Amino acid sequence: MKVLIAVDFSPIGREVAHAGYQIAQRMGMNPTFFHCAPMTSRFFEGYDIKAFVSPTSRIETDNLKQVATQKLNKVMEDVLSEHGVSEKIKIDEYVAIGDAGEVIVEYAKENDFDLIVIGYKSYSTIERLLVGSTATKVSRYAPCSVLIYRPQD
User: Is 105:143 a contact under the CB 8 Å cutoff?
Assistant: First the structure.
C-alpha cells in the first residue's frame, strides 16, 4: 500500500509531513513525500528566492524545482530523524510544478496510491478565495481516500 504525503513549506505542511509519515509507519505503507510548486508569475512564499518565475523560462523553472527539492529533502530529514526509518517501508519523494490540486490527483492516479494526506490550508488565503482550496480539489477528484490534516488548537 502507498500513501502520498502532500507537503508544502508552510508550518501546517511540515506537520502534515510528520503526521503522514507516522500513518505510513503504523500501517506499513510506502510513503511518497510530494511537493508541487505553483507555475505562475508571482513571488513565491516559502522558497527563499526573491524573483518572478515565468512559466516560459526553463532556467527559472529548473531553479524553482531545485530549490523545492532541497526544501523537501530538509523536511524529510527532519521527519526521519524524529520518527526513525523503518526497513519495512520504501520512502520516496517527488517534486512537480503546476496546479497543486490537479497535479496531486493526476500523480495519485498514475501511481496507484491508496491514501493521500494533505493539510487543510496553506500560505495563501487570496489564492484559496480566487482559485479554490487544493485540499478541496484533491478530496473531490482523488482516485483514493484522502485524509485532510487539521492540527489541534
Answer: yes
Paired sense of beta strands 145-149 and 92-97, if any:
unpaired
Residue 87, C-alpha cell as written in the block: 526497513
**What end-to-end distance do the CA atoms of the chain give, in Å?**
31
Q: Given this model, what pLDDT does residue 106 score?
A: 98
Q: Which three cell numbers stand for residue 109?
A: 492516479
Query: pLDDT per residue over 100-136, tens digit each?
Result: 999 999 999 999 999 999 998 765 555 555 445 899 9
Q: What is the pLDDT of residues 10-48, one digit of tens each?
A: 888 999 999 999 999 999 999 999 999 987 544 444 555
Q: What are phi and psi of 15, to 5 degrees?
A: -65, -40
Cell numbers linked to 123? 500560505
Helix (DSSP H) and strand (DSSP E) numbers for the chain? 5, 5
